[in-house]
């Protein structure tokens, strides 16, 4: 049987390249996993138990999501600069479903889609199903290159821009305030939708937080995606999106068509958790742990990194970007040198639709144990030095 073209289009993203043979000795800087020690296991279990005491939690509910949880998330959004009430929010299966539903809402085959280069691989996997025409905008230290974006918009029809403005996956970069405002102006001028993906927003380790892009949205053309995956637990599959009523209408229909609704039991459990727990204190603990791990990784890299290589200095999130010399192929380096040395990263090749980032790689400091970070960086930099000498 011939499968639909979207299967191959999604496989082309290279997700399979990420899975390497199991190696118990490996120190992995690859997967964007939270530190499992940071899951608030007891408090979440309490919340889930309380939710499960009510028989209604086991019944169908509705595609919008649990009303009490939506109100709690709206309060979280309000405190973060986004004017929203519970009715402006749709619950999703993680931010990943928010990406998929938005792409489904906006993109017919061939429609213009701007992404940052490099960008989040899972977003490309979702987008590829809808066969867009991709335009890559290079990342700079202060977010995407808006001059490059404007040039694209003046010459090509763009329907949607996907951005991760806070502690970007995979560079760790933060978009400046000026660029956030200018991006909305550009979107207004060219009638474009902005998809703002913000799963790392609450994980800032230094400096003052900038308002989300959605805070500058005057025409209802920004969709903000939030997620509990990095700040509570990814297995909850609990995300949300904030959008204007007109867009929400279509999104809710598409959500119902995709999976009817998200689990009421999980939603109510998280709602009870948020009622009872000291969530700000939990976030503060996360920041402290991840800040420390980031510092350990950066200190080791600065000590050991051979010339010709550079790393970004993320102020939050899970990731930093390792840039190698032009012409270096990180995928080959990983297969030929890093994996045999029992260390891994995410090579840049697949992190942009046109494969323009092959000489760079993403490293995470979130998942590895603190004591593994320095030995892992030593393995990595030794391999890089060998490569440079070849
Ligand atoms: N967006 C970005 C930028 C991410 O890094 C991730 C997780 N790696 C996701 C979305 C998907 O997360 P979730 O578990 O919320 O679906």
Main sheet overview: 8 strands, mixed
Per the principal axes of the C-alpha atoms, what is the gross shape? globular
Alpha plus pi helix count: 12
Bound molecule kinds, no repeats: 4'-deoxy-4'-aminopyridoxal-5'-phosphate
| SSE succession | HEHHEHEHEEHEHEEEHHHEEHEEEH
Strand content: 5-15%
Total number of beta strands: 14
List the uncertain runs. none
- Helical content stands at 40-55%
Which helices and strands, and how do they pair?
Layout: H1 5-11, E1 27-28, H2 41-52, H3 67-79, E2 89-92, H4 94-106, E3 112-117, H5 121-128, E4 133-140, E5 143-144, H6 146-155, E6 160-163, H7 177-190, E7 193-197, E8 222-227, E9 239-242, H8 245-259, H9 264-276, H10 279-304, E10 310-311, E11 319-323, H11 330-338, E12 343-344, E13 346-347, E14 360-364, H12 370-389
Parallel strand pairs: 1-12, 3-4, 3-6, 6-7, 7-8
Antiparallel strand pairs: 2-9, 4-5, 8-9, 10-11, 11-14, 13-14
This protein binds 4'-deoxy-4'-aminopyridoxal-5'-phosphate (PMP).
Residues 32, 94-96, 120, 122, 164, 169, 197, 199, 227, 229, 234, 239 line the site of 4'-deoxy-4'-aminopyridoxal-5'-phosphate (PMP).
Descriptive overview:
Helices cover 41% and strands 15% of the residues. It is α/β, with parallel strands linked by helices and 390 residues long. The strands form 3 sheets. It has an 8-stranded mixed beta sheet, with helices on both faces. Strands 10-11-14-13 form a 4-stranded antiparallel beta sheet. It has a two-stranded parallel ribbon with strand order 1-12. A hairpin with a 7-residue loop joins β10 (310-311) and β11 (319-323). The longest helix has 26 residues, at 279-304. The chain binds 4'-deoxy-4'-aminopyridoxal-5'-phosphate. InterPro entries: Aminotransferase_I/II_large, Class-I_PLP-dep_aminotransf, PyrdxlP-dep_Trfase, PyrdxlP-dep_Trfase_major, PyrdxlP-dep_Trfase_small. One of its GO terms (molecular function) is transaminase activity. Keywords: Aminotransferase, Pyridoxal phosphate, Transferase. It comes from Lacticaseibacillus jixianensis.
